[in-house]
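User: quick one - fold this with cobalt (II) ion bound?
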Amino acid sequence: MGILRRVYLKSDSEIELIKKSSLLVGKTLGEVAKLIKPGVPLFYLDKVAEEFIRDHHGVPSFKGYNGYPASLCLSVNDVVVHGIPNNDVLQEGDIISVDCGAYLNGFHGDYAYTFAVGEISEEKRLLVERTKESLLHAIKYAVPGNHIGDISHAVESYVKPFNYGVVRELCGHGIGKRMHESPDIPNYGKPGTGELIREGMVFCVEPMINMGTHKVTVDADQWTVRTADGKPAAHFEHQMAITSKGFELLSTYQYVEEALKTN
Ligand code: CO
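Assistant: Sure. Structure tokens for the protein plus cobalt (II) ion:
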């Protein structure tokens, strides 16, 4: 908003650096994925992630960001995003969004995956699957000449038939030397509106989809975002660069998926 909200376009060599930050996030999520089971405390997942990022010469992007106290956002069941890791223990049937950021060589990587803890209900399984699919569907619209609103609309229209709530208060974002850059990428909107998508843009698309109402509340800690009706929410985030050919995914779920196979 306003003239100060510039979009910083990245050169190919900057995109190569961002890819390294993003790869570190992917590997960190893979390490966390190995540990997702009933009985594991949230703070332990955070500790493992922070150590892994630092061992690989990175800095956790979230820690200290506007005073945020941890390296991961761990959002269980009715927590949509920005759950602060605490002593709570994962329970069979939970879903948990793990959101991770890593700063390396001057650039940030940032993305998220929602996991099932043990066996989950069919309605939760569908919520998670459809949220992931909404992201994979929407990023196809991230090509030069389209508008941000095309991505936004793609998320919203994908989940509409399921009567899910699309969170409106939070959105995806540009990313680079700073974790949050212009433009904002809402998960609802009209095609053809918003910023023109152009070569050199790097951004994160992150649908936050609720099983029930789209309305959310924020806890007294000023971080934890919850669904207003207490029903579960799912969250996936991918990071991509816009190139002359279309989009290039910088984020990868490869390490997560490998870990899930052997869990
Ligand atoms: Co993000």
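One thing worth noting: The mean pLDDT is 97.
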